[in-house]
Amino acid sequence: MTSNNDSVRFWNRKAASYAEQPIRDTEAYEKKLAITREYLNPQSSVLEFGCGTGSTALLHAPHVKQILALDSSEKMIEIAGAKAEKEGVSNVDFMTATLTDLQRPPASFDVILGLNVLHLLDDREEAIRRCFELLAPGGIFISSTACIARLGFLIKMLLPIGARLKLIPKVQIFTRETLEADIERAGFQILRSTVFNKNGMITFIVARK
Known about the structure:
alpha/beta
């Protein structure tokens, strides 16, 4: 689960424009924030991987003790750090790193967030296993993932072409059921699995170690 150089270059190139993009489905985003906060408290130590430009981490910051937010793109992390400084948020640390890079002992975190990232990883199963290892007993893993296996054949055929042309990031194709099985195989108990968007593509899962 080391960082992919093509992926890093893609997100470094897109970081500035990505930071300016509005949230596509604000209603779903607000629901995800609210559900996540059911599992946060003022003593929570939180890890977010694939944090992008840090918007979600900064929104959760008032509800927890501390957040360590990782992204493999240094440009994304630069933007996230600037946001934190501008907003005066002191309990979020942004780091250019992957889960593999992170040198923390087992059971270091109470909650781990992997939002809009598992489908972009070459080895999501390794990432899920690493989350299990890093969580304290009873800890919570929350993910929001594009499960696109049921999209039309033409779209799925065009995705790798777009990735080769560096127009889009590389996207892994799997079903919601496959993702749920991956999470349970790692040792997690799934507490809730929800699809918010109309096409059923984005799966939001809360799981307990």
